[in-house]
Amino acid sequence: MSTSSTAPPRGYYGRHIFFCLNQRKNGEDSCSQHNAQQGFDRCKARIKEMGLAGPGKVRVNKAGCLDRCAGGPVAVVYPEAIWYTFVDEEDIDEIVDSHLRDGKVVERLLLPPDVGR
Fold first, then answer.
1. Calpha distance 15→89 (Å, rounded)
2. Which of 79, 87, 82 is nearest to 107 (CA)?
3. Which InterPro entries match (predicted)?
4. pTM for this prediction
């Protein structure tokens, strides 16, 4: 197997962000009721517009239930396993600029560790 300096890193993406877009049918609170889709759309557009998408860079994905809807909407960034909550486009922009581009966690948007379903 040949290796190249342009090959993606072993993990393929440098960072991967998952947005919970779950909608519970039983009426229980869920991320989809808190503008999760808009957060996903904004993040995906910003990553693409900034040239941060692709192998070795950032991947933005939809997820089903991440089981933390009580803090919704929620997103999680890997490989760091950092959980965020957000309320508007400015929050998404800060996650993109600070964490996904620069590698600095946005402390004010961290989802408290005791928040679950």
1. 20
2. 82
3. Thioredoxin-like_sf (IPR036249)
4. 0.87
